[in-house]
């Protein structure tokens, strides 16, 4: 039956008290149990979770934001924004992409097939219009891999962080214009096939090698991903952060705010719960297939954020979105990296697409 809810545990693991610290109060075990799933028309299940203003709250949310997680990650990622979303009156719905978390893998998945999945979810939830958001994250678990492992998986790891949700969110904005009232891209990853010279400017050398490997030896990339999936459960250290070419701000965010790292690590583990099929299909779409979605057709207000020190999704990618999406606004924050930007600037990022009530 289309739209059937299989399981709903509303907002387990998060408090509705907007005075709590944004990360420290989260219960990761409860977050893992916080999910709902609907049955799609083709029989697959789409899993999602809610943060911010609760669905059944007497105080209705001013806006509903549909969140597309990074790569590899899951619906747990925006838990770090829960408290700020409460303060700003925003309801966040975060999906697991096919093959991640508890969403069924789609062997024919593409940037366009996710649009049909999203449309069915919006219909089920009775949402006429939403704001779409894609943000970075999902690196916490491998950031703390043991030092001896770093030399083995380091090239994969450096390429494995980015707002992999941005191409999917952009596709929805372009192909569902009547359902989308805003688009927010944070540290956006742009599919680079055929545009490597333009989009790889400022990209770290390990990321460049990994993208080349995806085209020349995809089997080797699969082996590395499978190895990392096992490594994520090893004892935690900070070797990757210290040798991985991160911005200093990213290192500080992960080392000095361990609960933030714990949430990101849990999000990545959940993203690889079923194995690597789903995330690997995503990364192959980013690196080896032409991007056929015409994002020039996006008509809704669009805001793009990027860290000036980001070498994972460099400024070239953010500027690429900015040039192609009519009327978009671009914020490049100096001296911020791929992780520190969304972690430290969540209030401003959310307010840029959902202005405070006093300004409405």
Description of the molecule:
The protein is an alpha/beta fold. Helices cover 39% and strands 14% of the residues. It has 15 helices and 9 strands. It has helices at 28-33, 82-87, 113-125, 147-159, 166-175, 196-199, 205-216, 218-231, 239-243, 248-256, 258-271, 277-288, 315-324, 340-344, 346-353, and strands at residues 5-8, 36-39, 45-52, 63-68, 90-95, 130-134, 180-186, 302-307, 329-333. It has a 9-stranded mixed beta sheet with strand order 1-2-3-5-4-6-7-8-9, sandwiched between helices. Strand 8, helix 13 and strand 9 (329-333) form a beta-alpha-beta unit. The chain is globular and about 50 Å long. Mean pLDDT is 79; it is low at 1-21, 137-161 and 237-243.
């Amino acid at each position: 039956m289309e739209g059937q809810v299989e399981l709903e545990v509303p907002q387990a693991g998060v408090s509705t008290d907007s005075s709590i610290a944004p990360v420290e109060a989260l219960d990761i075990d409860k977050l893992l149990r916080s999910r709902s799933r609907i049955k799609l028309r083709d029989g697959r299940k789409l899993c999602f979770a809610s943060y911010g203003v609760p669905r059944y709250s007497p105080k209705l949310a001013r806006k509903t934001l549909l969140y597309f997680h990074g790569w590899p990650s899951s619906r747990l990622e925006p838990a770090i924004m829960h408290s700020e979303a409460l303060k700003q009156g925003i309801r966040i719905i975060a999906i697991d992409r096919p093959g991640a978390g508890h969403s069924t893998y789609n062997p024919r998945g593409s940037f366009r097939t996710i649009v049909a999945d999203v449309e069915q979810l919006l219909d089920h939830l009775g949402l006429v219009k939403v704001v779409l958001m894609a943000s970075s994250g999902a690196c916490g678990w491998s950031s703390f891999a043991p030092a001896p492992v770093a030399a083995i998986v380091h090239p994969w790891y450096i390429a494995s962080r980015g707002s992999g949700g941005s191409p999917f969110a952009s596709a929805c904005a372009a192909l569902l214009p009547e359902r989308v009232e805003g688009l927010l891209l944070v540290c956006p990853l742009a599919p680079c096939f055929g545009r490597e010279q333009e989009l790889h400017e400022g990209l770290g050398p390990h990321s460049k090698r990994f993208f080349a490997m995806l085209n020349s030896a995809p089997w080797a990339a699969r082996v590395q991903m499978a190895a990392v999936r096992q490594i994520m459960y090893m004892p935690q250290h900070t070797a990757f952060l210290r040798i991985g070419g991160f911005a200093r701000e990213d290192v500080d965010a992960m080392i000095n705010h361990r609960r933030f790292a714990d949430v990101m690590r849990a999000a990545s583990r959940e993203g690889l719960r079923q194995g690597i099929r789903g995330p690997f299909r995503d990364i192959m779409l980013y690196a080896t297939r032409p991007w056929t979605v015409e994002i020039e057709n996006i008509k809704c207000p669009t805001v793009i954020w990027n860290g000036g020190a980001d070498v994972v999704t460099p400024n070239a990618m953010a500027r690429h979105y900015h040039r192609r999406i009519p009327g978009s606004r671009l914020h490049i924050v100096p001296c911020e990296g791929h992780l520190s930007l969304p972690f430290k600037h969540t209030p401003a990022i959310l307010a840029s697409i959902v202005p405070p009530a006093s300004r409405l």
